[in-house]
Write a structure and sequence with these properties.
The complex is a heterodimer of chains A (113) and B (117).
Chain A: E1 9-13, E2 18-23, E3 31-38, E4 45-50, E5 55-56, E6 61-64, E7 70-75, E8 84-92, E9 107-112
Parallel strand pairs in A: 1-9
Antiparallel strand pairs in A: 2-7, 3-4, 3-8, 5-6, 6-7, 8-9
Chain B: E1 5-7, E2 10-13, E3 19-24, E4 31-37, E5 43-50, E6 65-69, E7 75-79, E8 88-95, E9 107-108, E10 112-116
Parallel strand pairs in B: 2-10
Antiparallel strand pairs in B: 1-3, 3-7, 4-5, 4-8, 6-7, 8-9, 8-10
The chains are: A mainly beta (113), B mainly beta (117).
């Protein structure tokens, strides 16, 4: 699976949009971009995933560049509870399942009051 | 509904002892995964079960590690002759089938924190 590069940390003011970047320049055509987050001492939580089109759900929006070499996760109105480590992961889907997910170091997002 | 549950939440053991970690996936989920996370590190894939297919054991670090999934539901991860480097949080995740939801998503449990003294 393709490797991803994320900034180690970011701050965001409460109520503002948090934009988390991710580079995945070696992504293959059949690999999806996933975002998970992990709040301290909890298991990772799925946020969103996409292939090449932008995606939006109740938690966030995912913007994937046209060449698919980078993406941005957007939390439109960050709250203190959004403070977590955010992981950008690239993985193939086989028979509908993203078999194993390879988690890197992620971005520690701190939402400030 | 109920999420993925794991037990125990914490386990302290002595070097050389065997331990068993349990995972109860979300009811009806066909895929089950084990990962481990060492302090300050990312997740490391261990093993993957999908329905009745043979499990993908490619992530198991040594033959001291094994896992079973009985009846397509509950899974047990066993570590024999534990070593101090086995200390980590062991996380279980499950995914639904195509018919039940989005099989591309993994739902994680809270983990079992294993400490080997």
């Amino acid at each position: 699976d393709a490797k991803t590069t994320q900034p180690p940390s970011m701050d965001c003011a409460e109520g503002r949009a948090a934009n988390l970047p991710c580079n995945h320049s070696t992504i293959s055509g059949n690999e999806y971009v996933y975002w998970y987050r992990q709040i301290h001492s909890q298991g990772p939580q799925y946020i969103i995933h996409g292939l090449k089109n932008n995606e939006t759900n109740e938690m966030a929006s995912l913007i994937i560049t046209e060449d698919r070499k980078s993406s941005t996760l957007i939390l439109p109105h960050a709250t203190l509870r959004d403070t977590a480590v955010y992981y950008c992961i690239v993985a193939r889907i086989s028979s509908g399942s993203a078999r194993q997910l390879t988690f890197g170091s992620g971005t520690q997002l701190t939402v400030l009051p | 509904g109920a999420g993925v549950s794991q037990s125990p939440s914490n386990k302290v053991t002595e070097k050389g002892k065997d331990v068993e970690l349990r995972c109860d996936p979300i009811s009806g989920h066909t895929a089950l995964y084990w990962y481990r996370q060492s302090l300050g590190q990312g997740l490391e894939f261990l093993i993957y079960f999908q329905g009745n297919s043979a499990p993908d054991k490619s992530g198991l670090p040594s033959d001291r590690f094994s896992a079973e999934r009985t009846g397509g539901s509950v899974s047990t991860l066993t570590i024999q002759r534990t070593q101090q480097e086995d200390s980590a949080v062991y996380l279980c995740a499950s995914s639904p089938s195509r018919l039940a939801g989005n099989p591309a998503t993994q739902y994680f449990g809270p983990g079992t924190r294993l400490t080997v003294l």
